[in-house]
Amino acid sequence: MKCQRKKFFLQRKNAYFNCAYMSPSMKKVENAGIAGIKSKRNPAKFAVDDFFNETTALRNNFSKLINNEEPERTVIIPSVSYGIANAVNNLKFTNGKIVLAGEQFPSNVYPWVKLQEKGLRVEFVEAPNSKQRGEDWNASLLESIDSETRAVAIGHVHWSDGTRFLLEEIRNKLDQVGGLLIVDGTQSVGALPFDVQQIRPDALIVAGYKWLMGPYSIGMAYYGSAFDGGQPIEENWINRMQSEDFANLVKYQDDYRPKAIRYEVGEHSNFILVPMLNTAIKQLLKWGPENIQEYLDRLLKSSVSEIVEMGYQIEDSNWRANHLFGIRVPEKISREKLNHSLKKHRISVSNRGDAIRVAPHVYNDEIDVRKLLKALKEPIFA
Ligand SMILES: Cc1ncc(COP(=O)(O)O)c(C=O)c1O
Question: Which ligand 1 atom is nearest residue 219's CA?
Fold first, then answer.
């Protein structure tokens, strides 16, 4: 794959390495949103099918992205917290422990912590302070899964530094104790291959505005059979059987649409956000997450070595993804001077915990990378 910068509106003077914060909109995603806004100029044009067709297409395309053969197991959600709430509210156990990685994103922490009021225990497996940090962290996660474990709720990569978690191994260990695997794929799905049939999560929750490259306030979730027949957090008419029969909506239906559709957010046929996210996912399918990883590996491989030679620490490439990695700053380099230098060179990255989070994508090129190197080098000699 070559650089895809032309598909975006990015300005040359800025080097945007912050897709983990928010993706820049592709031109065609923005156009899809504008078309959605304009469509309401004449509401008479909205037909019944318009409430269903684009959402069906979005579920189909998201399903292709995660290799899911049952699109009705995927639903539109407004946020990760919403998607996790549907899972947490439908757990069938009241004792035992939930395993989380240390310092993971709050939307995948607070709902679990709240469960402690009902008698469940939450165990955080913190990152070790060792040389083989990624490897050791995965080992302690696997160790923490025992007969008490009811669920592991975790990302595919850690949101602050990209440490990769071995979800297949976690799944296999959970199978031995009958535990659920709940994945927050927000910082990976779209850029890193995710295969539902291989990883077999019980739920996969993904915000849309980062690596799915869609707008804010829409995301996608997948719920496996463990959540069949559960209670959704809201009762929306469109999730019930025969909701396409607008004339007869007050012939109230007891049954929900099949599989996971009951968990879909009300007014899911959002005529602005749904076409935007669908357009973005169609482009991701054309690129392919494996090719995105390969492009970023080629773009950054030699620079990563240079950054490490400067004295910064970056996780071994076997234990991180190429689209998101943390740069740990050694004591000899002043964090203040580094932040100043990044600002001066117009590099957009994020400070997350003790790492500087770098999150490149296919719009980044050699010019951006050279600027990043320059900005990282300057405070060493300052
Ligand atoms: C791992 C992860 N999950 C979820 C979110 C967003 O959560 P929500 O959609 O609940 O605001 C973020 C935002 O940075 C994130 O990094």
Answer: 9
